[in-house]
Each structure stands twice: as structure tokens, then as C-alpha cells.
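ENTRY TYPE: protein
WANTED: fold as C-alpha cells:
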Amino acid sequence: MTLPDLSPNMLEVSRELNPGCLHMQSEMGIIDAGRDLDLVFIHDVISYFTDKNDLLTVMKNAKKHLNSDGLRYLEWSYDLDTKDQVTEVEYAYLMCGEDD
């Protein structure tokens, strides 16, 4: 598993939590993992992309890294009611070869 982040501090935390994973300091839209992947998982960080072109850049870069049977999986969460202790989670996935 390859775990990217822009923040050196967040990478350090992740290295402690995920010692067997490759960590790379990079932006999701330009990261180059150097190999094809079976899965690209983009969690709720996707919520920070408010510009359509930035989001498209991330999705195209994710697709670029997938092997021919690969899967792009996105998951994001939000809290509609901060008083109920429930977090809403949504997801979407695209198989490699499907439209962006």
C-alpha cells in the first residue's frame, strides 16, 4: 500500500500507524507511485477538492496508476447532525476503463 500526504507531520503519524506501507510526500494529482495498482482508494480527503479541474486531475492520476482490472474507490463522510453521534458515509467506485 502506498500512502501519500503533503504534510511531513501526517506522514510521520501514518508511518507509526502503518509501518509496513510505503509513504510518499506528494499531492494526489501529481503523485507517481512508479507501478500499476489494483486499487486506488481515495477517502474523505476528496471533500477538500472544490474545484472541478483539480478533482478531474486527481481522478485521471488515479486511473493512470491502475492496472487493466483496477478499481478507483472513493469514500467521504460528513455529519448532518452533530448531536446524534452518527456520521454519514457515501462511496463511489469506477472500474478501470469506465468513463471519468
Q: What stands out?
A: Strands lie at 2-5, 22-25, 37-42, 66-78, 88-95. The chain has a mean pLDDT of 83.
